Amino acid sequence: MDAITCSMYIFIFYLSHLQQTAVADNSSYIPSENIVLNCGSNTSEFVEYDGRNWNGDIASPYVPSNADTKSLIVRAPNTRQTIPEVPYMTARIFKSEFSYTFNVTPGPKFIRLHFYPASYLQLNISNAFLSVSASNFTLLRNFSVSLNADYLNLAYFMKEFIVHVSESVLELTFAPSYNASDAYAFVNGIEVVSMPLDLYIQGDYAPLPLVDHSNVVYIYNGSAMENFYRLNVGGEQIPPKYDTGMFRTWDTDEVYILGSNIGIQPSNISMPVLYADKAPPYSAPADVYRTSRSMSPFENGLVNLNYNLTWFFPVDSGFLYLVRLHFCEIDHDITKINQVVFTVFLNNQTAEEQFDLIAWSGGPGVAVHRDYVVMVPQVIEGKQDLWLDLHPYKDSKPMYYNAFLNGVEIFKLSNVGDKNLAGLNPPKSFKSGSDVKAPRVAKFNRSSKKLKFILIGCGLGAVVLPILLCLVLFGLKVIRPRRVMSWCGLAVHTPNQIEKSKSSFCLHTPNQSEKSKSSFCRHFSMREMKVATNDFNETLLVGTGGFGNVYKGSFDGGATYVAIKRANPMSEQGASEFETEILWLSQLRHNNLVSLLGYCNEDGEMILVYDFMANGTLYDHLHLRNRDQDHHPLSWIQRLEICIGVARGLHYLHTGTKHKVIHRDIKTTNILLNHNWVPKISDFGLSKEGYPSLVTTNVKGSIGYLDPACYQSHKLTEKSDLYSLGVVLLEVLSARPAVSQCEDDEHVNLAEWAMLCFENGCGEQIVDPNLEGNIVKECFEL
Ligand SMILES: *[C@@H]1O[C@H](CO)[C@@H](O)[C@H](O)[C@H]1NC(C)=O
Ligand SMILES: *[C@@H]1O[C@H](CO)[C@@H](O)[C@H](O)[C@H]1NC(C)=O
Ligand SMILES: *[C@@H]1O[C@H](CO)[C@@H](O)[C@H](O)[C@H]1NC(C)=O
Ligand SMILES: *[C@@H]1O[C@H](CO)[C@@H](O)[C@H](O)[C@H]1NC(C)=O
Ligand SMILES: *[C@@H]1O[C@H](CO)[C@@H](O)[C@H](O)[C@H]1NC(C)=O
Ligand SMILES: *[C@@H]1O[C@H](CO)[C@@H](O)[C@H](O)[C@H]1NC(C)=O
Ligand SMILES: *[C@@H]1O[C@H](CO)[C@@H](O)[C@H](O)[C@H]1NC(C)=O
Ligand SMILES: *[C@@H]1O[C@H](CO)[C@@H](O)[C@H](O)[C@H]1NC(C)=O
Ligand SMILES: *[C@@H]1O[C@H](CO)[C@@H](O)[C@H](O)[C@H]1NC(C)=O
Ligand SMILES: *[C@@H]1O[C@H](CO)[C@@H](O)[C@H](O)[C@H]1NC(C)=O
């Protein structure tokens, strides 16, 4: 057999093997028990959201015959919020121990408890501390529904447990946690749904390695679990009725991503998902596998070596957690081993050093899940964050430096000794007690939408930077115009001249761009915007411009500040800039580019939400300080660092993306400084994708920064940005505006003037007097 026949044979064997084990993506599980109880109700109602009939528990076979004497049937008082009628508007209240008894088949069951904290019968909800047990497992103990709702910032929520039933009866017991006349417990809804035996427990009880320990952990039918997170990474929320028959909810992941480095969200909606033995068809809906989040695909991902793709999940201390990661290769060009390899870290420890999905799955479109157990020690009481980091594995020299994830599930495991799953209540939040609190109302969605935007630093190696700076300075010199034109003749952009073309702004094909726009950044509601800005209060105004007003907004009662840019409805440029800004900023991620957190387009408004830049614009620090005593002149080191940061950001725009991006409006008012003085390039309203020889009929930019070469040739290249950057550097050095007016009303173009000075060998003349003595003489020998 020659080599070709041999490899053909292996290929055919591989294909047939794949067909044997992989099945179509729609064979979902049919649960043997699917009990859905609307507590405190006597009717049966269909709920569209989860596609099931919820039966009232009154006169149901699950409550004891003397239920009336042991519990109270109550209705929640009406509120201004719209709370779903089923199951949240009715409840059963327990003043003493009360058990529901379900006759079920033996095996693992989901137990889901639904809670809506309200003042039932004028009882004080702060006194409701619940203990709940099932099959001798403590599910909840001293559990305060109201403290947990405050912590999650949700009006109502659900808790999901998994318990193994050995006999054919499941007893679910509720009780108040302490003995006092005002103590009580309650529940609004109960679900008991069965699941395949091997969904979360491997049939052969294979031990799972404990991350960062030599021990292994057996997850067997004697363990109970509580689901903390179940996320469709990079995709939309999947409601219970679209789960694989077990009515699980899959939430979006974006609120759990650390920092602004959220990666990109590749998806292939038409892709058939092949389920093999590494993920049976009921593991997760196909849509979980069809969407993902990955690092930057540009330049084979070299820049990714500087980052981690990081999520963090608040969990209870002192428990083991089962972390299940779902993977599926969406990119059909990735078919071989060692094309993408990455390391999985859990809580900063290596969980899997070299994860190569193709080696696991055999090819694109094949679903796989991997389980890890991690210990979250009791170093602090209460909640702490469980970290998940993905990082390209450099040592195997893969073809692309990338990492990705399609789905994640996190479960708390019961303590073996005392069969306990109960953690501590979250601390009383600062907000509770005040009347302004308006909990978010979400459909069965219990994910913590706490906004935690933490910036993480990242960047190019230190070696590259001096070179870059030199290049930029050199660039300015090289493209310096021979004949200096008067700036007066240049076309200058005025607000109503902005062109309306949008299609050329998309890096994606047009039909994808619509989707990417909606899924890449978060959509905020108008109400959230009003709360954050105190109804667009004038006192929070931090800037105004052609686009509209910029407000300093706050979330979480001042824990997080954001800049909220609200388009002036009168501004014609608004709609186009709004679109362009979202399109660009949702695809570009760099420490030196301003990060767009989301947008709001309700009520005909156009609002953009950015990270708040505490130190304002570079322009303010260079030019306004003379008028404002609060501004101290920037030191030479600060200025250099700012210039290096801007150069990095620009370098990323020009080389770090698939298609070159030309900013076209680099100037000191568009360079923002955060609280650490890290510069961020902003305002992408004029940006364009740079084709090799893009000819533009419409030269735009700002006076004083516009490259005369571009103006003459009408050719748009990244050199135009470099010219503008050169002007910014001169501005930083001299603290003079790009265009200034002298006494005799003549306009002085800074670039022109500085070049003259350098040519005459008196470059020092332009230096900001505040910097005198700080710069060594050699620096001026260009
Ligand atoms: C499942 O897939 C098969 C073939 O792929 C199709 O005929 C059938 O209608 C699908 N069933 C559902 C419920 O989507
Ligand atoms: C359900 O309860 C309500 C109020 O308790 C009562 O008016 C109604 O008759 C009951 N309906 C049935 C079918 O039992
Ligand atoms: C409910 O109880 C808490 C603490 O026990 C108390 O601070 C609060 O004022 C009470 N609320 C009402 C409405 O009585
Ligand atoms: C719970 O524990 C008691 C006593 O230890 C035992 O008799 C009972 O069978 C257990 N129940 C279940 C469902 O395991
Ligand atoms: C766990 O599995 C063992 C062996 O299959 C069985 O004997 C036992 O009854 C099971 N226990 C539960 C709680 O399901
Ligand atoms: C409450 O008191 C009763 C009777 O004294 C006792 O049986 C029960 O265990 C007590 N419950 C708690 C949570 O202390
Ligand atoms: C999407 O899935 C289809 C069907 O498997 C495949 O042919 C196509 O190449 C995939 N698209 C990409 C971009 O990988
Ligand atoms: C993991 O690293 C991050 C960032 O350095 C740190 O904030 C976090 O506390 C660490 N987590 C653990 C569990 O050590
Ligand atoms: C990625 O995360 C791991 C684990 O926390 C950490 O050791 C490593 O330094 C991180 N790498 C980068 C580039 O941040
Ligand atoms: C119950 O929870 C409350 C609120 O977190 C706490 O103050 C109290 O000490 C807890 N009680 C017990 C017995 O753990």
UniProtKB/TrEMBL annotation:
Entry's transmembrane regions: 453-476
Q: Which domain of life is it from?
A: Eukaryota
Q: Which residues bind ATP?
A: K565
* The keyword Ribonucleoprotein is annotated on this UniProt entry: no
UniProt feature coiled coil, ranges = none
For this UniProt record, the keywords arranged alphabetically read as follows: ATP-binding, Glycoprotein, Kinase, Membrane, Nucleotide-binding, Serine/threonine-protein kinase, Signal, Transferase, Transmembrane, Transmembrane helix
Q: Report the principal subcellular site.
A: membrane
Recorded GO molecular functions are: ATP binding; protein serine kinase activity; protein serine/threonine kinase activity; transmembrane receptor protein tyrosine kinase activity
PROSITE patterns of this UniProt entry?
PROTEIN_KINASE_ATP (PS00107), PROTEIN_KINASE_DOM (PS50011), PROTEIN_KINASE_ST (PS00108)
Leader sequence range is 1-24
Its placement in the membrane is given as: Single-pass type I membrane protein
- Please identify the protein, giving its name as recorded: non-specific serine/threonine protein kinase
Its Enzyme Commission number? Answer: 2.7.11.1
Which PANTHER family does the entry link to?
A: OS03G0124300 PROTEIN-RELATED, OS04G0586500 PROTEIN
